[in-house]
Design a protein that fits this description.
Length: 128
């Protein structure tokens, strides 16, 4: 009985140790992660706005450091998201939420900086 209990305690200690190591790796990744501006630029240049939006949320949740250039890419991602939701709400006749998303899109448009030329391209992509 004592040997069985020692085995269970040993296994639990190994599992706990593994979880602690995994958690530490996640913390190191989150704290030391820097944004890959090259990836963001590729997403924009190839009109891969869905990937750009995913990259934006990954960067936001991990607390990645940014700069003005990267914030412009994030503006494009936020514009794409707002226009996507605007279209969805418009198609379901939810005019109140559609108007809210249009306001968010206008704010994001200002954040896009030199990339605001993409607004028309995003709107064409999202046309029904």
């Amino acid at each position: 009985m004592l040997i069985g209990m020692n085995i269970v305690i040993g296994v639990l200690c190994l599992v706990l140790f593994g979880r602690v190591v995994s958690m530490m790796e996640s913390i190191v990744y989150a704290c030391g992660r820097s944004v890959n501006a090259g990836q963001l630029e590729r997403d924009v240049r190839y009109d891969d706005f869905a990937s750009l939006l995913g990259d934006y949320y990954t960067d936001v949740t991990t607390g990645a450091r940014t700069n003005t250039e990267i914030e412009e890419y994030y503006g494009v991602a936020r514009y794409y998201e707002a226009m996507l939701w605007h279209r969805a709400y418009t198609e379901t006749s939810d005019q109140e939420r559609a108007a809210e998303e249009l306001k968010k899109a206008e704010e994001a448009y200002e954040e896009m900086g030199s990339w605001n030329l993409l607004a028309e391209s995003i709107e064409k992509i999202l046309e029904p």
